[in-house]
Amino acid sequence: MRKITYLISGFLALSMIFTACKKEETKTDDANTEFLASTTPQNRVAILEDFTGVRCGYCPDGHVRAKAVADANPGKFIIMAVHAGSYATPATGWADFTTAFGNALVTQAKVSGFPAGTVSRMLCSDLAVTPQITGGYAMSRGSWAAAANKVIAMPAPVNIGAKATFDAGSRVLTVKVDLYYTSEETAQNNINVVLLQDGLFSRQSGGTPDANNYEQNHVVRDFITGQWGEVIAGSRSVGTKVSKIYKYTVPADYHGTTVEGGGAVIIDNLKVVAFVAQGQTNVLNAIEIDVQ
Predict the structure, then answer these.
(1) Three-state SS at 160
(2) How far apart are CA 107 and CA 101, in angstroms?
(3) Residues 6+ apart with CB under 8 A from 44
(4) In tens digits, what is the pLDDT along the chain, a chain of 292 residues?
(5) Domain coordinates in residue numbering, the chain
(6) Spatial separation of the C-alpha atoms in residues 157 and 220, rounded to whole Å
(7) Which CATH superfamily is domain 46-290 in?
(8) Which residues contact 249 (CB under 8 A, 6 or more apart)?
(9) DSSP class of 126
(10) How far apart are CA 39 and CA 183, in angstroms?
């Protein structure tokens, strides 16, 4: 009887181990195969690249106007504050929120004054608004709302789903981006993944209520996929699915934490923007997500 009891006990123990391993494996597989993009045709989400700088006295008014457009179009309008140009150049006593990518964006947009903005990197003429420079993408802040309304009424040829998770031990941010094409795209398409941070405080010309302690939001920290994104290879016909995973080590700060630095990274204040563009311009759709 004792031998039979041992055999039964051993069998039960093995069964419990096998069952536990099986559940864990299934959970992992489900997470890896989850497809995040909708397969139902959608309209575009607009992106504002708000060209701004800490020494630009009119830029806080641009921030207010951008927020008003976002509030009027929840989930349909994404703000990316690009600190670039002469008003953002590092200087004694002023925070440095610049990146390696901002000045190239300003050049492409054809900016003639700050604040300026591009809406989904579309030509102003295609959005029926006045460009700062003829043939350009950059417009003054008074045109942002009208341009956004044009974009969000356009059908999106591609849907985007995304998820961003942060591992505190390794400081690695993992971003999963899924695309679903609802119409054929024959032009080159690039995936772009951008890291933003809210809640940064600095000195700001024209800032209110306290110009010495002004809250900077939507600040572009890095283009994880580089200046113009990653080219999507292969077919982009109707029904095509594309899945990408990007890993990025998040630094403790950008440009240091002194007055002239860009400040510490607060994980809870980070957001990730993923968008698809036709090469360097014409953003086809976009999504903004929190970091988990």
Answers:
(1) strand
(2) 11
(3) 120, 151, 152, 154, 155, 156, 283, 284, 285, 286
(4) 433 333 334 433 333 333 333 222 222 233 457 999 999 999 999 999 999 999 999 999 999 999 999 999 999 999 999 999 999 999 999 999 999 999 999 999 999 999 999 999 999 999 999 999 999 999 999 999 999 999 999 999 999 999 999 999 999 999 999 999 999 999 999 999 999 999 999 999 999 999 999 999 999 999 999 999 999 999 899 999 999 999 999 999 999 999 999 999 999 999 999 999 999 999 999 999 999 9
(5) 46-290
(6) 26
(7) Immunoglobulins (2.60.40.10)
(8) 170, 171, 172, 173
(9) G
(10) 11
* Backbone CA torsion sign across 79, 82, 85, 91: positive
Radius of gyration of the chain (CA): 23
CA 243 to each of CA 40, 191, 196, 211, 239: distance values in angstroms, whole numbers, following the listed order: 17, 11, 22, 44, 13
* 180: exposed, middle or buried (Cβ count in 10 Å: 0-12, 13-18, 19+): buried
Inter-helix orientation angle 144-152/59-72, to 10°: 30
CA distance 34 to 137: 37
Beginning with the edge strand found earlier in the chain, give each strand of the sheet holding 241-249 in spatial order.
158-167, 172-181, 241-249
What six digits make up the tokens of 43? 């309209």
